[in-house]
Amino acid sequence: MRNLNPRPLLLFLLVTFLSAVIFLLLRKTIEAQSRKEQVIAKTAQRPARLPFQALAHFNYPPAKQSSIIFYFHPECDHCSYEAEAIQKQLEDFRSTQLIWISEADSSSIRRFAQQHQLDQVPNVHWMSDTANVFARSFGSGSVPSVWIYGQDGQLLKHYKGETKPAALLKYLHDESKTRH
Prior knowledge:
By secondary structure, the protein is an alpha/beta fold. A 6-stranded mixed beta sheet has the order 1-4-3-2-5-6, with helices on one face. The longest helix is centred in the N-terminal third of the chain and has 37 residues. It is elongated, with a radius of gyration of 24 Å. The model has no long low-confidence stretch (mean pLDDT 86).
């Protein structure tokens, strides 16, 4: 009786296994890219509604008004610097709806708003993402992040990280120049 050499069979199994792993990784990568593109396409237009809990009622989406959505956390130093800088230049944002959204509890959000003297400003609104759906809705869960939407609801700019008011205002001012 002749002995069978197990090497070809082992080689075949190894190649088959590696091919299956590569196929699955490639498929996962393609699916992730597709989801990312869908989220980008979805956020290119201001969402028709925000699936978050408002701390006080406000009208959204604003009619013929620009809006800036800030994703923040009350304990984030960069978020605090951003809020302080916005507060110092509130007059420049008077015709823009400023929406601050956090996954933190409502009491922490209220303390943050009071600490930065933004709690009584009519065009500044606060929302809590208690269901943790922000990243799925906007494609990014990093704090701070900023989305600037024009009067027509189109995304003008998305920033990840602390953003200075001058950068935000640049897009709002550029929008008014191109719209008139």
